[in-house]
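Researcher: Here's the sequence for the chain we discussed earlier.
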Amino acid sequence: MKFIDIIINKDYSGYNPIVFGHQECPPSWAYGPAVRTYWLLHYVHEGKGKFIREGKTYNIKKGEIFVIPPFIETYYQADSQYPWKYTWIGFEADEKSEKTFNEPVLRRPDSEKIFEDMKRCFDMENSKGAFLSSKIWELVALLMESDKSTASHIDKAISMMQSEYSSGITVAEIAKQVNLDRCYFSALFKKEIGISPIDYLTELKLRKAAELISVYRKSPTTVAISVGYSDYCHFSKAFKKFFGCSPRKYSETDK
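Model: Thanks. This is the structure I predict for it:
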């Protein structure tokens, strides 16, 4: 039994649904090797099967989502004794959004309700695309909320630096906010980004300072406070070390 719904392209930003379907596969039913031009997620409600992506085989079972990125060759086959029943959603994603689905297989039994709810689109006419787009976003929210990966810790730390650098936030405060020991956080950050968090934060503040001086013509004393330095001498010393000249000299030579 197979149901497919083609979605009229509305060019929704973030996640734009293209196709939706549900299938109860016969034993050993297979598809591929093939490529898609859009993202495709399959949520397995019952049964099991195998999924091959870029030469690696994954044994998929109930409660898992197997992920097919655009232009990546894949093959999948239902089990001969316990063939799977799954729901799939195909969509386009912008470069920023597609990072959410970077794993070949997601163990997400808690997402079943979302995929079950997607089936309501079969009874809709004009709102299919908007409804399915909202369901993809709901799935993304679920994945983000429970993401405990290294990347999520580092991404959160960088976001904090970019939004709080002017407040004088410290590495110790950032480590506390991401629930990591300071030493472990610093080692993890350097491994992922290539420089220590203190060096990253310092460079961020100094580049922001240079922009305020050269583009917005703000005085060095005002800039020092604006980027989180309460001590102007400390700011001036750090600025000269990074740019090779003092903030005041930088403001004069850039005119």
